[in-house]
Amino acid sequence: MARSWAELPTNRVIGLTGASPQALALSLEPLPDGAPAVLTYAATAAPTASAMVESVLSELETAAVALYPAWLPDAEGIAPGGAGVGAVRALALEMASGTHHFGPFVADLAQTSLRGEAPGPTRFPPEVRAAGLARVLAAAFGRPRVALLIDVPEGLSARDEDVLLAGGEWLAHRAGMGVWLTGARLASVDRLETVMVRLPAEVAAIARDVPETSVRPTVTAHASEGPARAGSAPAAYRGAFLPPSGMREPDLRRPAVRYPAVAGRPHPASAAEQALERALAVCDWAAGRAWNQTHQSHPLALSIRLDLLWRQERCVVEIDGPEHREAVRFEADRRRDVQLQLDGYAVLRFTNAQIASDLETVVRQLERFVVSRRAGTFEGSRHV
């Protein structure tokens, strides 16, 4: 019987069936109610189970540092200089005193996070790091548990598969986290329980209608086409998301660990979101913006996550990386844009490349649209 995300076990390793990694990722955005905090790890071949575990723990520490202060909210606004280190260590120890967190571990992690340092050598053994990171990452998303969704690559040898499974079993046992395998099947392993995932109806329909091998549609409108004709929205407002011909995405590599956005903040792993927020923070007209909010058309509809929202102005801004070229996500983007427009929102899409190469133009276009929306003068500003 198929299970929902909230019903999957978080104390052992299982293999997920019934959906592609792309469909699974889509169904986790935003995190479903009752589900653990789910982070995705792109597995690679490791020589030993301990090496695989060390790789995962290093990536999870990097994620925890990036997500600070979401897991230590009282530290918001504390500066790294002066008495800042002592203050965040005290807050971490105070948090640990009333929870299952291990005080010395979270105090050290808070100090590293405050200073913006890359995690380095640690005084704690792997068992303490694993359990501590599981608790911290769950707390960052306000969830009681955490799960690691491991994307298994094709072409692993029988030994590689055994190493991957042994490392996953260690993490599940020592960290108390769910370890869920997706992607390529472990052909040589016979001790792995498999579970079918029950996708939301909307995601299942997209996965059914759009095979993973299908070619993405061609988008002909680009922001580089020149000024929009009078009275019409610029190309960026018309749904264009591909970079102009010859422009390369700033970074096509995906991080080894991916994690959801925290409501109210630009995603820590998105250089484009971070850059845009820094630019908007000094603009008076940009007041009222909210990062990574959820929207639900009606109580039975699937919730969707919005990168950036001006709720009063009914304006949604989406920032697209190269993963939005995948067939399943491309189709999902088109469907959600239509639904948002039916709900009275304008949807503006920009690429990472646009923000990296011409941030000033992006901000100017956003200002034009948001200010005009407030005045009720922009074409199409009538609410549905």
UniProtKB/TrEMBL annotation:
InterPro entries hit by this protein: DUF559, Restrct_endonuc-II-like
DUF559 domain boundaries: 306-368
Domain of life: Bacteria
Gene3D superfamilies linked to this entry: VSR Endonuclease (3.40.960.10)
Protein name: DUF559 domain-containing protein
Originating organism: Planotetraspora mira
